[in-house]
Amino acid sequence: MENISKNFIEREIEKDLEEGVYKEVVTRFPPEPNGYLHIGHAKSILLNYGLAQKYNGTFHMRFDDTNPTKERVEFVDSIKEDIEWLGADFTNQLYFASDYFDKMYDAAVTLIKKGKAYVSDLNADEIREYRGTLESPGKKDPYSDRSVEENLKLFEEMKDGKYEDGTKVLRAKIDMNSPNINMRDPILYRVAHLTHHNTGDKWCIYPMYDFAHPMEDIIEGVTHSICTLEFEDHRPLYDWVVKEVDLENTPRQIEFAKLYLTNVVTGKRYIKKLVEEGKVDGWDDPRLVSIAALRRRGYTKESIANFVELCGVSKANSSTDIGMLEYCIREDLKMKAPRVMAVLDPVKLVIDNYPNDDIEYLDAPNNMENPELGSRQIPFGKELYINRDDFMIDPPKKYYRLFPGNEVRLMNAYFVTVTDYETDNEGNVTLIHCTYDPASKGGNSPDGRKVRGTIHWVCANDCYKTTVRLYENLVDEEKGVYDNDGNVNLNPNSLTVIKDCVIEPSVKDAKPYDRFQFVRSGFYVADPKDSKDGQPIFNRIVPLKSSFKMPK
Ligand code: ATP
Ligand code: MG
């Protein structure tokens, strides 16, 4: 399925190349620096970059910074970092739309001279009213008959700061009766006395998106301007600008469906709101799907690329299960990540017949499925920690782990048999007593007798205590993403902080972004922000088990 749908943009490109419409392929990714990038943007980046690679073309990284109201340098920097991390190389191909303000202004003057644009004094409300609706046609703008000379003079005065914000606009002269509202004399320029992060106070008029965007593509020689479906109705206007400004390059726009994740907040606007309201801990809160958050959560760029590939490119909006993204990271880390033993909910196990208080070292493979990762030595001794749920006083049938009288294998170590246990006043188990069979070293049966359960453990006198954070969906899936007021229905359990987890000591050296499988639990990453040197704390990337099934 994905190959067929994926090919629709490629087929268009190949046709254009065959017919000589374009000699080469130039694509771009044009974010507005008004927030952090998210998983949907990753799709657009990898698509545009991938197409440029595939057809030996060029990929442009372009900041669409034509609206100073919400744009900030912080966002420019984060966007660059995210794109570099994803692996879309834009060396020598970094562009800022604001560098083209002069050229855009000149193109607007061309339109005025051709009688294709005019200055209007209607205010915003009047323009809306004159524009009409889907059912009713628009009304002619009373200023649309101004002479070319008058329009040139007024537009120049707009540029020179003679007019207040909102008092004058430059409109394209197209067709107030068009069934497509976007073609009813759209605004090309507005007056806005704003300081721009790049051009400072040089400009007090700024181009509107529908004019700026084709201009940016024309100026850079972009051939295929790939955008999302909501711009389909804007394509006639895009083509109108390309045709009327009389410039050499003639890019074309192709639309594809946005990536949506079910029960996940993807829109930049909505993520921003969560950040600003303090509902999450910044743009890189690991519960978000901003690229920075996914990175911090422990996702690899390979897993994201694979996910985007599996989603395919389509013309129809749909929503993808986040389980697919989780599937991709599990697949990626399965062979790559070392497997270590970590006990998140520890209870002590004492081996009463263990001869002394010394620590012995046992050999353990780093990844049973991938011998290339080698092995390590893990400490073992008389006192161990095991997970509380690996022991039951009164187990149900088919419980093969520890219970009084039962024998299990301690992973990579020995067979042990439970002899006794202690509890506190409330009946909570505080200590489990057992004996071990020294002949079962390495976890191998000495005489062919079988044990059904294998559990993991950590040496109590040589382990690393740290904090581990577990994440669940930020959204309360029962209630859906938004409530009636447009606020996100938050899952109260989206973050669980577990202090005093015990992990085998080898992980103490973990560097930020080092990833592990904690056996029988999940994949974890050393958090890049909250870890200190020699004191990593861990984020759970995904649990090992999932109910998600890959669609065929
Ligand atoms: P949002 O809808 O999240 O607010 P945006 O479209 O406003 O995002 P821009 O910075 O304008 O964000 O987008 C840059 C590029 O990324 C555009 O070409 C846009 O079409 C694309 N893009 C944005 N969201 C998605 C998505 N969910 N899936 C695929 N591409 C996307
Ligand atoms: Mg946008």
Q: What does the overall shape look like?
A: elongated
**Major beta sheet, strand line-up:** 12-25-26-27-23-24-13
Number of helices in the DSSP assignment: 12
Largest sheet: 7 strands, mixed
Could you say what the CATH architecture of the largest domain is? 3-Layer(aba) Sandwich
Strand content: 15-25%
What compounds sit in this structure?
adenosine-5'-triphosphate, magnesium ion
CATH topology of the largest domain: Rossmann fold
Q: Tell me roughly what share of residues is in helical segments.
A: 25-40%
Tell me about this structure.
The chain has three domains: about 250 residues, 3-Layer(aba) Sandwich (Rossmann fold), CATH 3.40.50; about 150 residues, Ribosomal Protein L25, Chain P; about 120 residues, Ribosomal Protein L25, Chain P (Beta Barrel), CATH 2.40.240.10. About 25% of the residues lie in helices and about 25% in strands. It is built from twelve helices and 27 strands. Helix 3 links the parallel strand 2 and strand 3. Helix 2 crosses helix 11 and helix 7 crosses helix 8. The N terminus is likely disordered. Bound molecules: adenosine-5'-triphosphate and magnesium ion. Adenosine-5'-triphosphate (ATP) binds next to helix 2, strand 8 and helix 9.
